[in-house]
Amino acid sequence: MSETKPESMTSQAYDKIRSEIILCRLKPNDKLIIADLCDTFKVSLGAVREALSRLTSEGLVISIPRKGFRVADLSQEELIDLTDTRIKIELMCIENSIANGDLKWESGIVSALFELSKTPIEDAVNSKYISPDWTSAHKRFHESLVAACDSKCLLTIRENLYSQSERYRQASVPLDVKERDIIGEHSKIADAALEHNVKKTQDELERHLHKTTSILIKAYAENGMF
């Protein structure tokens, strides 16, 4: 039986811990006990330490001298900063993507929007929360918009910012999804992109992201979390 290479084990640990943080299964401020993470994910001590170091550099984990690691907290200030920064990067990615966009890119947007429109947004168990299937379809739609962007650096930064933003949506906070036309917002973004209208697409996307942040801030405040 072949042994798992150290770098492969580190990648496994990183991917699994990061996913648990983004999905808020590891909640904000949770203490991260290295031995427990090793047992849970069946990886080595060194792999977990390296994974936590990488996650610290991304801002998802906090390293406290002589106390270990904790999942980074959520705050209104960070959410606003995250949104403003994400918008800047998203607008750069979409401009690049539209410039390079071809028929395959356009078809991807149409397909992703159709999937999103047909996926129920409310969770089947608790209608106050967004369903995991809709969350996945939503991610694929936004990825389709920038699929033709040829800058790996921009896309890497964008993915990190998207994931950090997703953590705020995944936290256990009821969201009033009825107060906005979500599919209408995404349709406007898609239509503008398919017209190859950079300014219009950027404006619709920026408006959409700001509205999401406003709703999140309101929900967190109402639940005493901000």
Give a short summary of the structure.
Pfam families: FCD, GntR. By secondary structure, this protein is mainly alpha-helical.
Structural overview:
By secondary structure, the chain is mainly alpha-helical. The protein folds into two domains: 6-71, Arc Repressor Mutant, subunit A, CATH 1.10.10.10; 76-222, GntR ligand-binding domain-like (Four Helix Bundle (Hemerythrin (Met), subunit A)). It is 67% helix and 4% strand. The chain contains nine helices and three strands; from the N terminus they run αβααββαααααα. It has helices spanning 6-22, 34-41, 45-58, 76-100, 103-118, 132-145, 152-170, 182-194, 198-222, and strands at 31-32, 61-64, 68-71. The chain has a three-stranded antiparallel β-sheet with strand order 1-3-2. Strand 2 and strand 3 form a beta hairpin. The mean pLDDT is 91. This is Transcriptional regulator. It comes from OCS116 cluster bacterium.
Give the topology, please.
Blueprint: H1 6-22, E1 31-32, H2 34-41, H3 45-58, E2 61-64, E3 68-71, H4 76-100, H5 103-118, H6 132-145, H7 152-170, H8 182-194, H9 198-222
Antiparallel strand pairs: 1-3, 2-3
Strand order of the largest sheet: 1-3-2
Major β-sheet annotation: 3 strands, antiparallel
Q: Please state the structural category.
A: mainly alpha
* Quaternary form: single chain
N-to-C CA distance: 51 Å
**Whole-number count of domains:** 2
CATH superfamily placement of the largest domain: GntR ligand-binding domain-like
- Succession of helices and strands: HEHHEEHHHHHH
β content, as a range? under 5%
- Architecture of the largest domain, CATH level 2? Up-down Bundle
Helix coverage percent: 55-70%
Radius of gyration, in Å, reads 19 Å
* CATH topology-level fold name of the largest domain: Four Helix Bundle (Hemerythrin (Met), subunit A)
Q: Categorize the overall geometry.
A: globular
Unreliable stretches (pLDDT < 50, length at least 5) are none
> How many strands?
3
